[in-house]
Amino acid sequence: MDRGRFGVPAGVRDWAVAVGVAGLLVGTGLSGENSTANSDLLGCALLAGGGLALAAGRRAPLVVLAVTGLCAVGYQAAGFDVLAVSYLVAVYGAVRAGHRGLTVAVSLALLVALHLTALVFQGEPVREAFGRGGGVLELAWLIAAFAAGEAVRQAERRAEEAERTREETARRRADEERLRIARELHDSLTHQISVIKVQAEVAVHVARRRGEQVPEAMLAIQEAGREASRELRATLEALRDDDTTPPRGLDDVPELVRKSRTLGLDATLTIDGRQHDVPAAVDRTVYRIVQEALTNVARHADATTAAVRIDCLPDSLAIRIDDDGRATPAAAPLPGLGLLGMRERVTALGGRLCAEPRDGGGFTVQAELPVERTS
């Protein structure tokens, strides 16, 4: 709910203004000299109705503009010569909402209607009726209400533009920083890791060709070099993955599962339900969750199988990844950066994530992402 500076809900503020204006109009009307006993009830009802209509000004500004204008004509016809305060407030609200042209047209029509009302219902001479109805004071109040609404509208638009500019600037700086880190990692680490990896593989190849026993340390260096290369490529890929490049999503999950089999992991994929167009953020998060879960299984779970299941529900996507690793509730692994990153992604989209060992052994990652569909 929209709240103001002091935490008061917008609806409460609207009703407070409406009741205050209604009370002001009724009090002013009853204290005037032009009210008559026969028209007091109708006039007071129109005065109060015009003020209370302002409570709906935030939701339907043009309707409130018309209602307050009709009420102003009605209570003037009933003999209440009261400044149309409720209409002035409605003008402010309509202009603030951006309905400038229509507000001007309705206001001109109201001025003509007030002139005719003074002429027909109050029996005033034509010159006096038109002179009073188009008095300088009424026009000044009308112009002031219009100017106030336009000033607030412009200020709010500038504030929204400034906020949008700040968000775009922050996003651009984050992208630039991410790409800078990627370049530095590539320049500083890729070459050295590649040299270590190549030298270790050459040493292992030469030793085996000569029929010599390959030292365990050399095999460990070779495997560490391969693993470091894979991790570095994955890190650079994640750093360079921004909104300017086509993001990976649900359609890329089958290829991701196939690649995981090259790491010695027997991974299966099941997608149930009809796939619909989903927001880009949800689409990307599905891929990242599966990617991170399979990476953790391959590196840390000491598992041989993994099952990925994605259920496409009408209003959400449910993801579940199970492995047959060594994790148990009694020896649950400490959450690493991967799990924390998954949780942050899911929470940012309003979803839920559960990552924990199963009673029978193995680890399960479950996520549910809400999907807002557009018609």
List the helices and strands and how they pair.
Layout: H1 10-31, H2 40-52, H3 61-77, H4 85-96, H5 100-120, H6 126-133, H7 136-209, H8 216-240, H9 253-260, E1 266-272, H10 280-300, E2 305-312, E3 316-323, H11 337-348, E4 352-357, E5 363-370
Parallel strand pairs: 1-2
Antiparallel strand pairs: 2-3, 3-5, 4-5
Report the principal-axis shape: elongated
* Rg, nearest Å: 36 Å
Poorly predicted runs = none
Strand content: 5-15%
Tally of extended strands? Answer: 5
Mean pLDDT: 79
Q: How far is the first residue's CA from the last residue's CA?
A: 25 Å
**Strand order, biggest sheet?**
1-2-3-5-4
Sheet having the most strands: 5 strands, mixed
Name the helix and strand elements from N-terminus to C-terminus, one letter apiece. Answer: HHHHHHHHHEHEEHEE
Quaternary state, please? single chain
User: Helical percent range?
Assistant: 55-70%
Number of DSSP helical runs: 11
Would you tell me the structural class of the helices and strands?
alpha+beta
Give a concise summary.
Helix content is 62%, strand content 10%. With 375 residues, it is α+β, with helices and mostly antiparallel strands.
